[in-house]
Amino acid sequence: MLRRTLACGHRGLLLAVWLGGCSLANAHAGCLDDVRNAQRIGAGNFCVLGFCLYRAELWATQAPRPSTLHDAPFALSLTYERSVSAERIVSTGLDEIQRLSAQPIADATLARWQHNMRRAFGDVVRGDELCGVYLPGHGARFYTNGKLSADVQDPAFAEAFFDIWLDPRTRAPSLRQQLLGGP
């Protein structure tokens, strides 16, 4: 956030969050380095009962199709509008992964995924950016405010994690549509 403030100025920070940033390098430092030639595919807000929790942006070299979603790298950036504890982020994420899974997930796998998510995510406050990069065949890298927080070498976890937003059965279908470049 400090980098964004310095690059954009205090007044420009709010506009940067809503309009995509003063510069790609400052707004998404680190995260987009893993997705060469990335362009913003889509963006939208995740709101519940009129309270917006975060703004999400999907970055990729081209708009992913649902049938080829896991074939190419992409980055999903969340810029938070409210404070959320790390425990809440992890527990909600695991609940959604389990809900979307076609089969029950083994306890040992869930414990490993929970550990990986705890490494990746800390508490967030308004203006913090969490960015996850999906890397086919490798897993995922996670960044907090532009700094690498975890490199999870588990392709099954990565697919399950990003499906929270991109699976057709997501709890936020309009956000999914916006992320994938729809209206």
UniProtKB/TrEMBL annotation:
Alphabetical list of InterPro entries matching this protein: Chalcone_isomerase
Taxonomy, superkingdom: Bacteria
Keywords, comma-separated and alphabetical: Signal
Pfam family, any one: Chalcone_3
Chalcone isomerase domain ranges (all copies): 53-181
PROSITE patterns given in the database record: PROKAR_LIPOPROTEIN (PS51257)
Keyword Protein transport: no
Protein name: Chalcone isomerase domain-containing protein
Organism: Pandoraea sputorum
